Amino acid sequence: MDKKSIEFLKEMMAASSPSGFETEVQQVVMKHMSKSADRVESDVLGNVAAALNEKGSPRIMLAGHCDEIGLLLQHINNDGYLYFQQIGGIYLPALQGQRVTVQGRKGKVPGVIGRKKGESTEVPKSFPIESLWVDIGAKSRKEAEDIVAIGDPITFPANFQELPNNLLLSRGFDDKIGVFAIAGIIKELSGAKFAPAVFGVSTVQEEIGTRGATTSSFNINPDIGIAIDVIEATDYPDTDKRTKGEVALGKGPVLHRGANINPVIGRMLIDTARELSMPYQVTAAAGPTGTDARAMQLVRAGVATALISVPLRYMHTSGEIISLDDIENIVKLVVTLVKKMKKDTSFLPL
Which of 34, 94, 272, 346 is 20 to 30 A from 189, alpha carbon to alpha carbon? Predict the structure, then answer.
C-alpha cells in the first residue's frame, strides 16, 4: 500500500469520532474523497457521500461507518470526579486504567479511568458503569466545571502502530477501516469506465443504531447496498469457533450468507473472489447483521444488500488489530465487481 494512503489512514485514526460527534474525522474524509470523486457532499446528520458516474445504473451504495465507541460525561461529583454514559457497546472491563481525553469546549482535557481497587488477588465479578469514573486531577466540582461540561464526549487517545506481518494496531478500526477501504475503492475507480453509479458513504451513528445509513440510503436510493465493516476474528486463544465461525486475520475478506444478504449480489461477490484467485472467508448471518447492511436492506421498497467484513481482533477495545492484506483484497474485490456489473443486471432472487 502506498505511503499517501497510509498517511491518510493515520490521520483518520488520530481523529476522534464517537457516535454523534464525528465532525473531526468527517472533515478528514471529505478532504480526501474530494481528490477522487466527481462530487462529495454531507448531510444534516453528518454523513459524507462521494459520487462517481451518478447517471449510471444500477446505483451502488458502499457504506462504512466512521463513528467509534466512546463515553459521554454524565455527572461531576463534589470532588471533581467525572461519571459517564457509554456510547456504543464498550467492553467495560477493559476501561479500568485507560487514559482518556475529554473533548471540552475550551480544549482537550486529559484524564484516566479509575475504579475502586480491591486486594491484589481479587478478580472483580462485574464492572457496573457507575463503579468507574474519570480522574482529570480536579479538586472540586467547580474546578472541573471550569474545563469540562455535562455532555462532553470522552475519547481514547490515538495509538496507531504498525506490527509485524502487515498488521496494524489502533483504537477505532471499527469501522474507520471500512471508510478507508471505501476511499480506496473510489480512488481506484476514479477515471475508469463502468456502468453503475457508485456512492461511497462514510456514515455516522452506526454504533447507536445504524442511524446514518438509514438516512443516507433513503437519500441515495440505491439498487445495491454493500456495507464494509469489521467482524470479530476467532484466531486468538480461547475463542469458540462453534458459535462464531472461523475468521482469521490475513485470510481474506469475510463474505456473509443469510437473511441480510441478497442471494444474487452475495453469489456475485463469491464468484468474483474466485475469479481473482483471492483468499476469502465465509460466515453465516441468520438474522439482521449489526451493521449498516441492516439499515440499507429495508429502505424504501428494499435494497439488494451484501456485507463484506474485515477480520479484527479485540473489538470495542482501544487495542484493535487488523491486516492490511485484507483491506487491499477488499478494494480489489469491489473494484472488480463494479467494473463487471451490467446495466440490466437483475437482483431479484426469484
Answer: 346
